[in-house]
Amino acid sequence: MVGFAILIPILNAGIGLGIAKLIHMSQGDALLFAVLCASASYIAVPAAMRMTVPEANPSLYVSTALAVTFPFNIIVGIPLYLAGIQFLWR
Q: Which CA distances in Å does 51 have to 23, 26, 43?
């Protein structure tokens, strides 16, 4: 579950960076877009899980989103996405 909480934001941000490059966003806009794409996993998932799988244990998916995904995005994710942008926009 922890691996999923780390890999999905990276995957979402990668897809976001690909779209940003495709539509010729500036680097700053692309970084913001990547962060928003990566954060969708902990903003939307708790509500989606509650609606689609009502028997799921909220203490698992909410705590994973807040204790793993959010700190990962702040500490590692944003610099990683910026490095990806600097590589793709050369």
A: 33, 36, 14
* Angstrom distance (rounded) from CA 13 to CA 20: 10
- Residue-wise pLDDT for 5-63, tens only, equals 899 999 999 999 999 999 999 999 999 999 999 998 777 777 787 888 888 888 888 88
What's the token pair of residue 74? Answer: 């702040």
Question: 12: exposed, middle or buried (C-beta count within 10 Å: 0-12, 13-18, 19+)?
Answer: middle
User: Cα 76 from chain centroid?
Assistant: 11
Query: How many beta carbons lie within 10 A of that of residue 42, not counting itself?
Result: 22
- H/E stretch holding 67 reads none
Element housing 26 (H / E): none
